[in-house]
Amino acid sequence: MKKLLLAALAILGTYTATAQKTINGVSVEKSITVSGQELELNGAGMREKLWYDLYVGALYLTEKSSDGKALLNADKAMAITLDITDEAVTQDKMKSAVEDGFDDSCSSKERKAIQKEINTFIGFFKDAIVKGDHFEIAYLPGKGTMVSKNGTQIGTIAGLNFKKGLFGIWLGDDPADEDLKEGMLNK
């Protein structure tokens, strides 16, 4: 009986381990809950630049999709998590990358319309960023885009247009990393 129980636990342990995806040592959860809304992992990948593996990014949705444009325009709950994997990612470099990302994901007219929100978002990166930090960027209709770092809420920014520009950094026509976009969209 004891051997049977141990075998059952081993099978269960194997199932649990395979339910998550591991990328560059980061365990990507198969689902997350944001303000009571359960979101399922759509896909994940690594943000690389030159020879640096900067962070693992994961996209969570209410239902699976590989259509980045539809996701950007959807007024539906979704989240992106970023797990920092390299000390090359610093507070200043994150701010600069966000600025560049909005330049690539928005037209100048769109950016001008949400510049106040962009400034607020960039202000969320006032504390040092270190290898191992976990950011969660979640959009909920009617609430806005909520940002947390290592499980602590940093702030919320209202507006679907801001969400479109922000999520466009990873899912838009000119993403920060094409391979990461494909990973998040599970292509």
Automatic annotation (TrEMBL):
Superkingdom of origin:
Bacteria
Chain ranges of the Chalcone isomerase domain: 21-185
What would you give as a GO molecular function for this chain, any one?
intramolecular lyase activity
InterPro entries the UniProt entry points to:
Chalcone_isomerase, Chalcone_isomerase_3-sand, Chalcone_isomerase_sf
Q: Which UniProt keywords apply?
A: Isomerase, Signal
Please name the SUPFAM superfamilies in this protein's record: Chalcone isomerase
Q: Where is the signal peptide?
A: 1-19
One Pfam family it belongs to: Chalcone_3
User: What name does this protein carry?
Assistant: Chalcone isomerase
Species of origin: Nonlabens dokdonensis
